[in-house]
Specification:
Layout: E1 3-8, H1 13-25, E2 29-31, H2 42-54, E3 58-62, H3 70-81, E4 85-88
Parallel strand pairs: 1-2, 1-3, 3-4
Helix pairs in contact: 2-3
Amino acid sequence: MKIITICGSYKFKSTMIEVYRQLTDLGYIVLFPAMGCTEHDKEWYLRLHFEKIAISDAIFVVDVNKYVGESTRIEIDKAIELQKLVIYYSRNKLGVV
């Protein structure tokens, strides 16, 4: 089974949850960003998310209306550095809506 980490702005949280459901239904193991957590600083959560990206086969960028914020751009750059497949919501081929 392939592992996919979802990346994107928290303002698209509901779309990210729907993508999570659809990817899971397609048989992928899906990793999700930490949401609603406040124990640590932003850098700690970013490092945690980098670890999720590192163990993934791909990332799925939820870029509604092609919007990619600064944090998401950093996640994309990390995925590229780690030679991971980058799939964009705005132009995906998985049939995920």
